[in-house]
């Protein structure tokens, strides 16, 4: 069984946990568990293996060194797992590096000037228009200056 690598994910979003298998009967079922620290939590149980995926809404809190495991219900020694991190993005963190800082100011100014080719994330824009503009530049400057939380 092979679990897709999930990497770094945004807190609160809904993701698909996906797996592939071979040499396992199609009538088998799997369990999905999450390890945080030393404890395991069952997220889903008795999912038909042929389904190949299930949805999961990530917790709203950040976490590092989390382990996601897909295992056969019939034989828990048949499993795969992947390590990942849940992070929280703040409004104005347009490069998704985990903080609102001068890099976000510069990047947003470059976007406004049309000179930036970098990837920016509009899910952190602050004005509600779905775009990075001068409103975001001002907001980010206020956060960096400590005027705004």
Kindly describe this structure:
The protein is α+β, with helices and mostly antiparallel strands and 149 residues long. The protein has two domains: 2-87, Immunoglobulin-like, CATH 2.60.40.1930; 102-145, no CATH class. It is 16% helix and 37% strand. The chain has helices at residues 102-113, 134-145, and strands at 2-3, 7-10, 14-20, 29-36, 39-48, 53-57, 63-72, 79-87. It has a five-stranded mixed sheet with strand order 2-8-7-4-5, with no helix packed on it. Strand 4 (29-36) and strand 5 (39-48) form a beta hairpin. Helix 1 runs antiparallel to helix 2. The radius of gyration is 20 Å and the shape is elongated.
What keywords describe this structure?
single chain, 5-stranded mixed sheet, Immunoglobulin-like, 2 helices, alpha+beta, elongated, 3-stranded antiparallel sheet, 8 strands, 149 residues, 2 domains
Gyration radius, to the nearest Å? Answer: 20 Å
Helix count from the secondary structure assignment: 2
Stated plainly, the CATH topology of the largest domain is called Immunoglobulin-like
Beta-strand share of residues: 35-45%
Level-1 CATH class name of the largest domain: Mainly Beta
Straight-line N-to-C gap: 45 Å
Question: What is the count of structural domains?
Answer: 2
Biggest β-sheet strands, sense, barrel: 5 strands, mixed
CATH architecture annotation of the largest domain: Sandwich
Please write the string of helix (H) and strand (E) elements: EEEEEEEEHH
Strand order of the largest sheet: 2-8-7-4-5
CATH superfamily of the largest domain: Macroglobulin (MG2) domain
Spans of 5+ residues with little confidence (pLDDT < 50)?
Answer: none
Question: What is the number of E strands?
Answer: 8
Helix % is 10-25%
Rounded average pLDDT: 88
Question: Looking at the structure, what is the overall shape?
Answer: elongated
- Structural class by SSE content: alpha+beta
